[in-house]
Design a protein that fits this description.
The chain has about 170 residues and is mainly alpha-helical. It is about 80% helix and about 0% strand. Helix 4 packs across helix 5.
């Protein structure tokens, strides 16, 4: 823990020294000194940035929530249904490796500038990781766990509730 703190302090000092050296070679209007930034930070933060931080957090919350709900549902469908797995797996394997910033121009043209584009980009960045992890997590459950309950006469809902969603 102490080494991490030392590394952080050394990194902090190094960045600020490089920043300070950089201000001597570049115009102050382009790169202000760290002292100027820190002196003016409180006024700018309190007056101008609070509403923007709130809007950004709202977009992030909305994108994460939609990603989690859709990713969980689609991952469950892909893992438990052969039809949905066969339908969505090729689409996921095609879209997953594409850098999500490649979709930004399409999203901007389709949805314009503003909140919808930002939320959609957050969803595109996160949803595939959730889908893959949910699908692979459910598929890694040993089939014997299901067979044991089936021999006891468990319904589909009981299998889903007691095996698939069981907390360990």
């Amino acid at each position: 823990m102490l080494n991490k703190i030392k590394s952080f302090i050394y990194g902090f000092i190094l960045v600020h020294l490089l920043w300070l050296c950089g201000t001597h070679f570049v115009d102050d209007r382009l790169i202000p000194s760290p002292f100027t930034v820190y002196v003016r930070m409180d006024g700018a933060f309190l007056s101008d940035m609070i509403p923007h931080i709130g809007h950004s957090l709202w977009r992030l919350f909305l994108g994460l929530s939609i990603s989690m709900i859709l990713g969980l549902c689609l991952g469950l469908l892909m893992a438990r249904s052969r039809f949905w797995g066969n339908l969505l797996n090729p689409l996921m394997y095609f879209l997953y490796p594409i850098p999500k910033m490649a979709f930004l121009p399409v999203a901007m043209i389709t949805f314009g500038l503003g909140n919808p584009t930002t939320v959609i980009m957050i969803i595109l960045i996160i949803i595939f990781q959730i889908m893959v992890n949910v699908r692979d997590g459910i598929n890694s459950i040993p089939i014997e766990n299901y067979h044991t309950l089936l021999t006891l006469g468990a319904s589909s809902w009981q299998l889903f509730k007691d095996v698939t969603f069981q907390r360990h």
